[in-house]
Amino acid sequence: MNILAVESSCDDISWALVKDAREILSMGIVSQVDIHTKTGGVVPEVAAREHAVTIIPTLMQVMEGRDWKDVDAIAVTAGPGLLGSLLVGMTGAQTLAILREKPLIPVHHIEGHVYANWLDRSPEEIVFPAVVLTVSGGHNDLYFMEGPGQFTALGQTQDDAAGEAFDKVARLCGLGYPGGPAIERHLTEHPLPRDVENPLRFPRAKTAGQYDWSFSGLKSDVRRTVEQLAHAGTWNEEHRTFVLDAFEEAVVDALVTKTTEAFKKMGAKTLLVTGGVSANSRLRDRFNAFAHATGSRVLVPVKKLYCTDNAAMIGAAAYMVATYQPEKVLHTTEEKLRLSPALRYSLVGREDPRNATQQKRSKKEPHVLRIEVGYGEKEPKVPPNATDTINSRVDQRVAKASCIFRYFCQHGRTDGKKTEKHHLERQGSKTFGQKQVSSDG
Questions:
Q1: Which residues of 249-272 are buried (b: 16+ CB within 10 A; e: fewer)?
Q2: Is the model's pLDDT at 431 over the cut of 80?
Q3: pLDDT by residue (tens digit) across 358-399?
Q4: What backbone torsions phi and psi does residue 115 show, to the nearest 5 degrees?
Q5: Is the confidence at residue 421, as pLDDT, over 50?
Q6: Inter-residue contact 96 to 74 (CB < 8 Å)
Q7: Which positions ≥6 away from 51 have C-beta within 8 Å?
Q8: In this structure, are residues 5 and 18 in contact, taking their beta carbons and an 8 Å threshold?
Q9: Rounded CA separation 84/91 (Å)
Q10: Residue 401 has pLDDT above 70, yes or no
């Protein structure tokens, strides 16, 4: 099954054609890192506007030389994420699904990260049940996975995600954005001397939940240390290395300790680590050391490119949804048009500390990873005599979408100028597939 997927939940936009959740036929990614480096973080409005410019050229690049008959379904990240960014990708996916008469598969962004571990791997490598750590700039969660689509929430961050902490500490120490790669690059270029032990050690936070994390206190410890050194006039390159090394060690130690504890207690057969922070070399080394010491099966995405946001992981997740949860696939035009972004981080039975208005559920109710798509809070009530009106409005929206999409395909821009081919190169696009493969990074 070939699925054309789009991911646009944050500052990267990506299209990919994925076969059976494992083989990437083609993929394009347009990064906005250079743009958001100037502001030290993602500006939602800017991200959405850039997506609107690059979504069509990226799609055309991925589908170049390919027949639409080879596409069996369209998949899209439906949330959580930035509203404007999600809307750009969702509008494109809805339009394609309607015009090409393809099923539309909404995918939870975090579930996409989970299935990034399926890419370039054989089916027998992943054995259930599994414990899954998803760790990035916007999420830091631990799940027990009994099978495809069957998730139980074990833990999560109570404040900052690990990736967010990396960004903030990098900014405190005068490094660039994104923080994770910037800190790792600094420690590679300015390593601790082999005969010198780091005199700094930041405390690990204690949380109420056995498998929960907290990184806001660690961030505050780093700030106080930097301010004290600066006030004493001793803030220099060596001390910067000490601070960053101690910070990274504290984050990695917290993640590995609680994840491996859950893995052993739950009796899982596979430990999956995914998300942007899973590209961190120290984190990978620590999990690999655990695997070798215990003989456990620990898997991280095959390529570091699969750790960060990409459409291939959404295509992989969509295949699993279509296979094991076919009721979530949207087939009718009305269903496709009613799909809307799900901004809430929806874990049934587990209150998200970042959303105080979320309703508490019974302790007996199972924790299930759920994405709320379609109608927001409630499905709208439609009077019996309103069917003709709805059908008329649907037809009008389809016609409008058709005109917009055809115009974009012909011109690529709203000002009538054709999109230049080198536009993607200037935006930092990366493409790989059967013939052209990106480096592992």
A1: bbbbbbbbebbbebbeebebebbb
A2: no
A3: 333 333 333 344 333 333 333 434 344 444 444 454 445 445
A4: -80, 0
A5: no
A6: yes
A7: 8, 13, 84, 85, 88, 89
A8: yes
A9: 11
A10: no
What string of H, E and C letters represents the secondary structure of 286-304?
Answer: HHHHHHHHHCCCEECCCCH
Q: At residue 388, what are phi and psi to the nearest 5 degrees? A: -65, -40
Euclidean distance between CA atoms 219 and 203, whole angstroms: 11
DSSP SS3 for 88: helix
Q: Which one is predicted more confidently, 374 or 156?
A: 156
What DSSP line would sit under 371-421, residue for residue? ---SSTTSPPP--GGGHHHHHHHHHHHHHHHHHHHHHHHHHSSTTSPPPPT
Amino acid in the structure at residue 135: V
Confidence band (pLDDT; 50, 70, 90) for 414? Answer: very low
pLDDT at 2 over 80: yes
- At 326 the three-state DSSP class reads helix
Q: What are the extents of the domains in the chain?
A: 2-116+307-347+370-433, 128-301
Torsion sign over Cα 254, 133, 274, 213: negative
408 has pLDDT over 90: no
pLDDT mean over 151-161? 93
- For domain 2-116+307-347+370-433, give the CATH superfamily: ATPase, nucleotide binding domain (3.30.420.40)
Residue 283 has pLDDT above 90, yes or no: yes
d(CA 101, CA 204): 53
Count how many residues are written for the chain.
Answer: 441
| More confident site: 12 or 430 | 12
Three-state DSSP class for residue 195: coil
Average pLDDT over residues 134-159: 93
Q: Which of helix, strand or coil describes residue 179?
A: helix
Distance from C-alpha of 322 to C-alpha of 88, rounded to nearest angstrom: 23
Quick: pLDDT tens for 254-268: 999 999 999 999 999
Fold of 128-301: Nucleotidyltransferase; domain 5 (3.30.420)
The pLDDT tens digits for 116-125 are 999 999 988 9
CA 70 to chain centre: 26
Position of tokens 């005969």? 195
Six token digits for residue 94: 């809805």
Distances from the Cα of 122 to the Cα of 117, 187, 213, 342, angstroms: 10, 35, 32, 32
Which pLDDT does position 344 carry in this prediction?
65
Strand 73-79 relative to strand 13-19: parallel, antiparallel, unpaired? unpaired
Q: Say if strands 298-299 and 270-274 run parallel, antiparallel, or are unpaired.
A: parallel
**In contact, 167 and 36? CB cutoff 8 Å:** no
